[in-house]
Amino acid sequence: MKLRTVDPRKIQVPEVRVTSSFDGEILAMFKRSIQELGILEPPLVVQVNSDLVLVDGLHRLQEAVARGDQSVQVVVMEGEMQDVLLHNLQLSQLRGRTKASELVAVIEALWKEYNIDSDEISRRTGLSRERVEKLQVVSQARPVVREALDEDLIKVGHAFLLAKIGDPEVQERVLQQQLVFHWPERALAEHIAAVEAAQAQAPAQPVQPPPAEPMLFRCGFCGGDYPLEQIANPRVCVSCAGLLADATRQRRTTTPPEGEL
Predict the structure, then answer these.
(1) Is residue 226 in some structural domain?
(2) Omega before residue 234 within 30° of 0, cis
(3) Is 172 part of any domain?
């Protein structure tokens, strides 16, 4: 790692990351400290090719930019984007309050985009393998479940139980019930078990037989096959019956009465 002086506006902040949050009083103290003493602890960045990508120190970086600082000292280490996420995940455990939804997003990126398994994530971040795998399951939940987690309407344990419901409609319906009744995790698990048991016992919907093929009758005049409603008696189609009727009328108008020449 090296200490470098760089323009804070040229440091990239990844879209997916864990950011510590502070309450109003602590944030005011932080800002006052920066104004009076400056940035005492340099932000940590990873050099990915020619880019400097932020790992830790977003609030410090934002304050430097807001103050119009032209330069700031940073600690630089070389690596790849997965190193940015792994270090960010590790250091976030030592900072202020973090959002569970951001943890889920970082775990999902490491798992899906960079093919890093739960053992490796656990080893490099200090998170237990059980928690990593629980967050992986939560990352597969319906968007509304992740939104509820992001808004702190449910906890990770609730999101984990909801994410394991295979039917998307049932998952969303049970989420709405959870938002109304605010069950603890154990009660939610019991409710989900009852819902899934009821689904398993529900009678299967009867299979509708395919529509029967219409019965066809052959016209004795033209030889074509027609449904019953298009057959005149005796078994002559409507078209042929019309032709026969016209021919009969024509014959009556052109044939002289019997006995006349």
Answers:
(1) yes
(2) yes
(3) no
Cα 52 → chain centroid: 31
Q: State the DSSP string of 231-254.
A: EETTTEEHHHHHHHHHHHHHHHHH
CA gap 34, 146 in Å, rounded:
35
> What token pair was written down for 47?
């050099």
Cβ–Cβ under 8 Å, residues 183 and 155: no
Mean per-residue pLDDT pooled into runs of 10, the chain (261 residues): 95 95 82 86 96 96 93 96 96 82 95 96 94 96 95 95 96 96 96 93 74 74 74 64 69 58 50
Domain that holds residue 225: 217-252
Residue 28 falls inside a structural domain: no
Report the pLDDT value the prediction gives residue 253, as an integer from 0 to 100: 64
Q: What is the DSSP letter of 261?
A: -
User: Distance (Å, rounded) from C-alpha 119 to C-alpha 114?
Assistant: 14
Predicted structure pTM score: 0.71
* Domain-located, residue 129: no
3-state secondary structure (DSSP) of residue 164 = coil
Instruction: Judge whether 6 and 71 are in contact, CB under 8 Å.
Output: yes
Angle ∠(248,252,258) on CA atoms, nearest 5: 135
Q: Which amino acid is at 43?
A: P
Which tokens go with 92? 């976030």
Q: Contact, 12 vs 46, CB < 8 A? A: no
Counting the structural domains of the chain, the total is: 1
